[in-house]
Design a protein that fits this description.
By secondary structure, the protein is of the alpha/beta class. The chain has eight helices and seven strands, in the order αααβαβββαβαβαβα. The chain has helices spanning 2-42, 55-65, 73-82, 98-108, 132-137, 154-164, 178-186, 197-204, and strands at residues 85-89, 112-116, 122-123, 126-127, 144-147, 168-171, 190-192. The radius of gyration is 23 Å and the shape is elongated.
């Protein structure tokens, strides 16, 4: 009797495991089929990182789909060397925010940082402007527009850069909006996507000093 119980339990667990494996494969196939559409609409969002087991898969799939390519290290080094003024869109007055820390570091590197944030009046000793257009109208010459906003806001920023004929657009690490980045590049704007400007400066410029 006990033997039949053990056999029955083992069979049940085996079938349950097989069923779960089939369900996992089914969910994975559905996720993969939907992923290109989701990525094209919203970019590689941090929310996908919360899916257990899918982080590497999602990132790899995104890299395959992406057609936008960042400029070469040599070109990025030239940009960072020649630039003098960087407008930081989304610069926060809170010292613990990444935008604040990166901007403070950029000031130490010798850049003038222009905050673009309608919610604050001043930060890091510089007047804040509500829009890029307001900064340009104030007579400021902007060499790089550094973006600390979610991918959904990038389209409007790209439109402003094209309209104002700004020379360079930098989408910070994690800000992935391939169609908008490609649009900016096609308009003649030097465009970098999904890179941290602080890390790139240290890697390409700081190491050579």
């Amino acid at each position: 009797m006990f033997g039949w119980f053990v056999w029955g339990r083992s069979t049940y667990l085996y079938r349950l495991k097989k069923s779960n494996a089939r369900a996992d494969r089914y969910r994975e196939r559905r996720f993969l089929r939907a992923l290109p559409r989701r990525l094209s609409q919203a970019g590689y969002q941090a929310g996908y990182n919360d899916r257990p087991g899918f982080r590497r898969l999602c990132k790899t799939r995104h890299q395959i789909i992406m057609s936008f390519k960042n400029p070469t290290d040599s070109d990025i080094r030239s940009l960072l060397t020649d630039a003098r003024t960087i407008a930081v869109v989304g610069l926060s007055a809170r010292s613990h925010r990444p935008s604040h820390g990166v901007s403070r570091a950029l000031q130490r590197f010798g850049y003038r940082v222009i905050p673009v944030n309608p919610g604050i009046d001043e930060v890091l000793g510089e007047r804040s402007y509500p829009t890029l257009a307001a900064a340009v109208e104030a007579g400021l010459k902007i060499d790089i527009v550094d973006v600390f906003r979610s991918p959904g806001h990038v389209e409007g920023i790209v439109s402003d850069c094209i309209e104002l004929k700004l020379p360079a657009l930098w989408l910070q690490e994690g800000v992935i909006a391939e169609p908008q980045a490609a649009r900016a590049a096609d308009a003649g704007i030097f465009t970098v996507m999904d890179r941290c400007i602080y890390k790139e400066y240290v890697r390409l410029v700081g190491a050579g000093k």
